[in-house]
């Protein structure tokens, strides 16, 4: 019988970082989607300035444009900026879900998270918010962003909504782990950086930013966040009581982020400007959302009939295994010591598929699948190991693999090692997140944030990565690889 693995998920959780003597600075832009001018300023601050990461508001009115701009700038790191508020007087947005506790009498989000003297009785805290409804809303926002920007790497909270209550914080911890977008700055010793000096005008902002840079200390990683904008008629019409000079203020941020003086100060100080993705290590997307660059298809039946329709296509920005003919798609390159984050779903019917790690000798099994360790994605069995010409061990081997005399790595031998959990997968049609970490001779697997398997003494420690076509249509929207030096905590 399988046993349930209980996981305490910590918001922003990720691997530890051993600091060097360099200075690292994460320069972040906030609130993408709230206005057209904000969107343009954020992209300008990235292309012509020092900004490396942005936060996007999923329920915001200019979200569709933001998605297009992010698609045109694939190097820009993206975070989901979870929100429960719509603070501006002349422009409003509503929850993505039907949660009644999240809406004011007009159906919009409340203006503020915490009580505000200028808006009495108009904060989330002053009303009977419902945790179940907040979780549904956060999930909807994450899902919407990941639908159009699969590379999203992390989550933040708009106007402090995540820290409104410890129960909201704990829930956010849990779902960020589940979605595989859990980066915890404290694990890396990240410190907040702030402007040093007055910062009303553009000139003051630039001077204060340079002063801040000059005070950064070697061996530390810092984080700075601001809100770029453009001083035009659109932004001049957006404000709330207590913050009326939005257009001038946010134009100053854009001027600061694109300033030659700031760039010179960073270079002189030797500051390495990075993104949140850079923080967790050497990361790259193995699937670009457009084609099969970096992969090749191996379907034995196509050897005899080259005109046969391939079972692997690109559809709506996803890599799809149509599975009408058995085979796999496999990376051109080999990898070792990595974390692999994969979003997948059975789009119509439940069925079978797998991720093959440490792949080497082609067509070792059934003259089709390469020598490898399979991380099973089969519906209701996600996280099982299957040995394909390679072997791996787990605790309680005989209870999870069967009688020892039947073990083997070929053909009809007992190649399956049952995972640790039941119920870790989502219903058919919903997206699952698989995280596979391979380090040395160990392999750890999480499904939707739950640890489902941990093997060791693997007979292979490096190789290509393959995705199977094996009987059921499966969609993949993210395949991201990060180099690691230690395994994640459970």
Task: Tell me what the structure shows.
The chain has 490 residues and is α+β, with helices and mostly antiparallel strands. 22% of the residues lie in helices and 24% in strands. It has helices spanning 36-47, 63-71, 131-148, 166-179, 202-215, 233-236, 246-257, 260-269, 276-279, 301-304, 397-401, and strands at residues 23-32, 53-56, 77-82, 154-157, 190-192, 221-226, 271-274, 283-285, 295-298, 312-315, 318-321, 327-331, 338-346, 354-359, 372-376, 385-388, 416-417, 432-439, 442-447, 450-455, 464-469, 474-483. Strand 15 (372-376) and strand 16 (385-388) form a beta hairpin. Helix 1 runs parallel beside helix 7 and helix 3 runs parallel beside helix 4 (166-179). The longest helix has 18 residues, at 131-148.
């Amino acid at each position: 019988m399988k046993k349930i693995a209980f996981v305490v998920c910590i918001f922003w959780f990720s691997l530890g970082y051993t600091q060097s003597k360099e200075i690292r600075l994460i320069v972040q832009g906030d609130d993408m989607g709230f206005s057209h001018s904000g969107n343009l300023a954020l992209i300008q601050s990235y292309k012509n300035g020092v900004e490396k990461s942005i936060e996007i508001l999923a329920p915001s009115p200019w979200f569709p444009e933001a998605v297009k701009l992010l698609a045109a700038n694939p190097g820009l790191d993206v975070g989901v900026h979870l929100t429960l508020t719509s603070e501006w007087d002349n422009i409003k947005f509503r929850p993505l879900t039907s949660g009644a506790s999240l809406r004011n009498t007009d159906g919009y989000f409340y203006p503020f998270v915490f009580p505000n003297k200028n808006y009495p009785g108009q904060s989330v805290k002053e009303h009977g918010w419902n945790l179940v409804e907040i979780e549904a809303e956060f999930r909807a926002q994450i899902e919407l962003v990941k639908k159009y920007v699969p590379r999203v790497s992390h989550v933040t909270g708009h106007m402090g909504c995540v820290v409104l209550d410890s129960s909201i914080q704990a829930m956010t911890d849990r779902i960020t782990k589940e979605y595989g977008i859990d980066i915890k700055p404290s694990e890396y010793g990240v410190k907040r950086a702030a402007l040093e000096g007055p910062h009303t005008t553009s000139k003051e902002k630039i001077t204060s930013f340079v002063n801040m840079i000059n005070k950064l200390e070697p061996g530390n990683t810092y984080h700075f966040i601001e809100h770029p904008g453009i001083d035009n008629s659109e932004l001049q019409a957006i404000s709330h009581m207590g913050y009326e000079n939005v257009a001038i203020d946010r134009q100053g941020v854009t001027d600061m982020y694109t300033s030659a003086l700031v760039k010179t100060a960073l270079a002189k100080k030797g500051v390495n400007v990075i993104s949140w993705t850079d923080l967790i290590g050497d990361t790259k997307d193995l699937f670009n959302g457009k084609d099969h660059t970096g992969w090749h298809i191996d379907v034995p039946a196509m050897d005899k009939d080259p005109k046969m329709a391939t079972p692997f296509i690109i559809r709506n920005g996803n890599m799809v295994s149509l599975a009408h003919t058995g085979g796999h798609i496999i990376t051109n390159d080999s990898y070792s010591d990595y974390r692999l984050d994969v979003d997948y779903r059975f789009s119509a019917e439940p069925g079978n598929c797998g991720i093959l790690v440490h792949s080497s000798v082609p067509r070792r099994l059934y003259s089709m699948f390469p020598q490898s360790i399979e991380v099973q994605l089969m519906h209701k069995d996600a996280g099982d190991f299957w040995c394909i010409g390679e072997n791996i061990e787990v605790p309680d081997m005989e209870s999870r693999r069967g009688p020892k005399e039947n073990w083997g790595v070929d053909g009809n031998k007992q190649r399956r090692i049952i995972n640790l959990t039941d119920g870790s997968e989502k219903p058919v049609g919903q997206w699952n997140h698989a995280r596979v970490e391979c380090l040395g001779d160990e392999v750890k697997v999480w499904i939707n944030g739950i640890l489902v398997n941990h093997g060791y003494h693997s007979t292979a420690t490096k190789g290509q990565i393959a995705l199977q076509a094996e009987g059921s249509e499966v969609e993949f929207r993210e395949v991201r690889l990060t180099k690691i030096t230690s395994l994640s905590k459970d």
